[in-house]
């Protein structure tokens, strides 16, 4: 077991894909025998059987010999070091704080910083050109060995190709094998911080709650978990550091005036601020993403380096030549994929219809519950009937949302796999888009209904509108905005609490490393983590005019989320196989869509749902707010009541139920406000986008410098190889820049 980093070569491979044989032992062994090619690439170095009661678990330790590592490293375009980079470049914020003699409380000195190298794609015939080629035990990094061995396991068929019997992933999903994963680095007793292994460093300097105000060691995260996970934490850290403001609004009085907490003049400016913050945050992230992708050698990953998915390779009916690389690659006809995509869209529409049916059911539930409470003759419950119905309806809606989310995510996985996307990036983008469209409707349909439809189609006394024979519900005395704020808080905070409550399964002491790792939780990927944060981003931008407190809850949740996720990945999850990534994928496009939608939504919320414009209009026309409540109330038709009492209801209508002249004046003001608000905010956003380039100037200079160095290296290599290597192409240099903690 790799405990002291100095074991023989076959253990130093550190590829521990622990295959637990459960139901079909013979089928699993037959699958393993399928890999006996290329001088036995997968060698069974160790096999252990653990018996607990009536259950026997078999652990198989797999590793790969040097020649197989070299073959697949070239096959999957592994990047290896060519020359160490010795030029340090400091961070601009640290320079400013240093000049101002201000201590940087977020900085920390993390030991064993991963070194920077000039790198290029591995070529077996140029092995001697690469740094560290003399030591075969340490030439390939641990994470690269994980990638190579999992590539072999994932692409090998074990049965009929027509039935899709390919790869270890399907065997695990069908319970032929119960798990396949690399082992975590095992803890050791350090003499000093420099002797800590990478997992211990991440635990001490990142995953502990005491590190909540420190920069994340992104280089170390990337070294241990890979670029994809490191990019997620970099993005999550940006949401934590850039979003640290919210508006503290103080008001007197409590409940009937509670709407003033969210419905006041400051809400307009806060909505503008949040809309501009969303645009600025995305621009800031695009710059950071370009720096990290260039620094981690992933800037051309999707266009050139990314290989077809193993399942796609095995199931594609034909091959074509890649126009970029010139290599023969599997191909699936676009017409067939289009037809399958359209079928998947029909399922999305069906599920959205189900969401709307549940929304109508919850609306009817609130109305019926209010009627039952009013007829209960209990004074306390009658006084709070609307509030009780609204709150219980919000909680019931949250339960429905979570149940439908699980069902549709499962369906989306099946549909996306059926669509046969070529690369993992395209597969994930298609899956994310399907789920997000559904979740967008699932999570936001109820708030949208309360914001823009509830109370709009009630009618007036004597002529009330009905839904399925039941009178349409109206907003409470404090208005629809306070009910919208309540709905947002129940859904947003409720989902955050439920998502963060995890059942952590800790390994028992005294177990072997493979047993201890097997008892850890399965890492399901980053989809749920991204989805939670993106939905939260929607809540704090789309509906911020209704609930200015939402950003505060989001900030607290982000502080918790960074450390909670760090602790899960380091301590509670099995170690995932490293995946490379160029950026956060389609999530960035979704965030842009949400930021633009937020501008329009907040404009309509302020104009049509809040009382900000009616109060402003009344003050302008009368000079004071005296009599404003009577201005907002209309008189019911004379034939509505049989007594001489006057019945008043909310609305700007005459005694016949028709809109008054003030209604049309106010409507024109509202529409004008929407147009002005939208154009001003979007114009400022475009100016910010124009002023802040996506790629920093320093990165562009580095790219030009790298191209120059590549030409120099090409000329030098041609002279060097002309004596013996003939026309072998030299490696292409790329540069990895300085460390960065964010």
From TrEMBL:
Domain (Anoctamin dimerisation) ranges: 50-218
Domain Anoctamin transmembrane span(s) in chain numbering: 221-706
Cited InterPro entries: Anoct_dimer, Anoctamin, Anoctamin_TM
Superkingdom of source: Eukaryota
Pfam family for this entry, one: Anoctamin
GO molecular function: chloride channel activity; protein dimerization activity
Gene Ontology biological process terms from the UniProt entry: calcium activated phospholipid scrambling
Keywords, in A-Z order: Cell membrane, Glycoprotein, Membrane, Transmembrane, Transmembrane helix
Transmembrane segments: 266-285, 347-368, 388-411, 431-452, 534-556, 584-608, 663-684
Topological relation to the membrane, as annotated: Multi-pass membrane protein
GO cellular component term of the entry, any: plasma membrane
Family: Belongs to the anoctamin family.
Protein name: Anoctamin
Annotated source species: Cyprinus carpio
């Amino acid at each position: 077991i790799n405990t002291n980093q100095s074991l023989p070569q076959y253990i130093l491979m550190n590829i521990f894909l622990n295959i637990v044989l459960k139901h079909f032992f013979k089928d699993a062994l037959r699958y393993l025998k399928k890999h006996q090619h290329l001088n036995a690439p997968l060698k069974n170095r160790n096999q252990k059987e653990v018996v607990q009661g009536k259950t026997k678990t078999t652990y198989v330790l797999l590793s790969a010999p040097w020649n197989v590592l070299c073959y697949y490293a070239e096959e999957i375009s592994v990047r290896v070091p060519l020359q160490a980079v010795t030029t340090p470049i400091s961070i601009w914020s640290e320079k400013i704080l240093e000049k101002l003699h201000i201590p940087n409380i977020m900085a920390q000195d993390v030991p064993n910083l991963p070194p920077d190298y000039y790198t290029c794609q591995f070529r077996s015939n140029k092995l001697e050109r690469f740094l560290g080629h003399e030591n075969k035990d340490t030439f390939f990094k641990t994470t690269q060995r994980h990638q190579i061995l999992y590539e072999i396991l994932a692409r090998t068929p074990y049965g009929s190709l027509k039935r899709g019997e390919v790869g270890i992933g399907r065997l695990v999903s069908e319970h032929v094998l119960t798990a396949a994963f690399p082992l975590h680095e095992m803890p050791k007793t350090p003499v000093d911080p420099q002797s800590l292994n990478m997992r211990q460093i991440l635990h001490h300097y990142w995953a502990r709650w005491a590190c909540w105000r420190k920069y994340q060691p992104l280089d170390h995260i990337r070294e241990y978990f890979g670029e994809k996970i490191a990019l997620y934490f970099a993005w999550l850290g940006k949401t934590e550091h850039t979003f640290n403001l919210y508006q503290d609004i103080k008001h007197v009085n409590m409940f009937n005036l509670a709407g003033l907490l969210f419905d006041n003049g400051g809400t307009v400016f806060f909505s503008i601020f949040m809309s501009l913050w969303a645009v600025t945050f995305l621009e800031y992230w695009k710059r950071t993403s370009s720096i990290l992708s260039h620094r981690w050698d992933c800037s051309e990953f999707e266009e050139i380096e990314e290989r077809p998915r193993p399942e796609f390779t095995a199931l594609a009916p034909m091959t074509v030549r890649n126009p970029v690389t010139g290599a023969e690659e599997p191909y699936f006809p676009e017409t067939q994929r289009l037809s399958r995509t359209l079928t998947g869209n029909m399922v999305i529409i069906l599920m959205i219809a189900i969401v709307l049916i549940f929304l109508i059911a919850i609306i009817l539930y609130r109305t019926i519950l209010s009627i039952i409470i009013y007829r209960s003759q209990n004074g306390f419950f009658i006084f709070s009937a609307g509030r009780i119905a609204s709150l219980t309806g919000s909680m019931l809606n949250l339960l429905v949302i979570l149940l439908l989310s699980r069902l549709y995510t499962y369906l989306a996985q099946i549909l996306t796999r059926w669509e046969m996307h070529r690369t993992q990036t395209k597969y994930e983008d298609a899956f994310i888009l399907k789920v997000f469209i559904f979740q967008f409707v699932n999570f936001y349909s109820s708030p949208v209904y309360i914001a823009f439809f509830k109370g709009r189609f009630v009618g007036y006394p004597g002529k009330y509108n009905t839904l399925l024979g039941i009178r349409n519900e109206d907003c409470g005395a404090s208005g629809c905005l306070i009910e919208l704020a309540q709905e947002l808080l129940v859904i947003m905070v409720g989902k955050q609490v439920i998502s963060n409550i995890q059942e952590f399964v800790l390994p028992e002491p005294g177990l072997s490393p493979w047993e201890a790792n097997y008892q850890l939780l399965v890492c399901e990927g980053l989809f749920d983590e991204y989805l939670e944060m993106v939905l939260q981003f929607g809540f704090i931008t789309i509906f911020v005019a209704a609930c200015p407190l939402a950003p505060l809850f989001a900030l607290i949740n982000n502080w918790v989320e960074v450390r909670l996720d760090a602790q899960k990945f380091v301590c509670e999850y099995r170690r995932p196989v490293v995946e490379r990534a160029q950026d956060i994928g389609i999530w960035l496009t979704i965030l842009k869509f949400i930021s633009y939608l937020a501008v329009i939504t907040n404009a309509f919320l302020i104009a049509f749902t809040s009382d900000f414009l009616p109060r402003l209009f009344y003050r302008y026309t009368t000079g004071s707010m005296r009599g404003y409540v009577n201005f907002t109330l209309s008189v019911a038709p004379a034939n509505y009541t049989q007594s001489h009492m006057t019945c008043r209801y909310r609305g700007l209508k005459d005694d016949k139920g028709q809109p008054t002249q003030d209604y049309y004046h106010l409507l024109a003001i509202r529409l004008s406000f929407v147009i002005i608000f939208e154009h001003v905010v979007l114009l400022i956003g475009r100016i910010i986008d124009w002023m802040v380039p996506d790629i920093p100037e320093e990165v562009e200079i580095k790219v030009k410098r790298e191209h120059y160095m590549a030409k120099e290296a090409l000329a030098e290599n041609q002279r060097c190889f002309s004596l013996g290597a003939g026309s072998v192409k030299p490696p292409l240099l790329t540069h990895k820049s300085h460390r960065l903690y964010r």
